[in-house]
């Protein structure tokens, strides 16, 4: 959808760029032609939604650890969810998945919304229009691509899930968290 001036809205641009990042990941992981990939991504999304809700609940009770580290973890989990949403959208363009799977994806998105998780980024948006979601997903993508081995190939479990390889480096949400917390 275009805004009044015929431009992409920020949300549309962010969604398109997230899909492009996810598509890059799917290509690197060599799963574009794998029918099982869609079901695996839905299973991963279930896991990530639960982790995002746990991180959100921990953030709501900051006495357990310093707020910045809790917030960094929450951002990482939100990024993981949106990354997988992007992967599922890219796979959908290839014709993978069935209606039941998409209903499950919609249900999981609603769980994030109902849990208040998706409002976090809106709350930490500044007047200059800084929108952190794309930065977060770019960092998650960078981290996910670091799972490749020295030859650039994914290392997989028996069920197809990509494991962390020798070059893995975790997503670093600290700079984004610090910027967002200053905005508040």
Largest sheet properties: 2 strands, antiparallel
Compute the number of strand runs: 2
Q: Tell me the Rg in angstroms.
A: 17 Å
- Following the backbone from N to C, one meets helices and strands in this order, namely HHHHHHEEH
How many angstroms separate the termini? 30 Å
| Helical amount | 55-70%
Rough outline: globular
Q: What class do helices, strands and sheet pairing give?
A: mainly alpha
User: In terms of per-residue confidence, which ranges show pLDDT below 50 for 5 or more consecutive residues?
Assistant: none
> Strands of the largest sheet, in order across it?
1-2
Structure annotation, total helices? 7
What portion of residues belong to β-strands? under 5%
When the domains are counted, the total is 1
Mean pLDDT: 76
What's this entry about, in short?
Helix content is 63%, strand content 2%. By secondary structure, the protein is mainly α.
Q: Keyphrases for this structure?
A:
184 residues, mainly alpha, two-stranded antiparallel ribbon, 7 helices, globular
Descriptive report:
The chain has 184 residues and is mainly alpha-helical. The protein has one domain (10-183). It is 63% helix and 2% strand. The chain is built from 7 helices and 2 strands. The chain has helices at residues 10-28, 36-60, 67-93, 99-114, 119-123, 132-145, 174-183; strands at 155-156, 162-163. A two-stranded antiparallel sheet has the order 1-2. A hairpin with a 5-residue loop joins strand 1 and strand 2. The chain is globular.
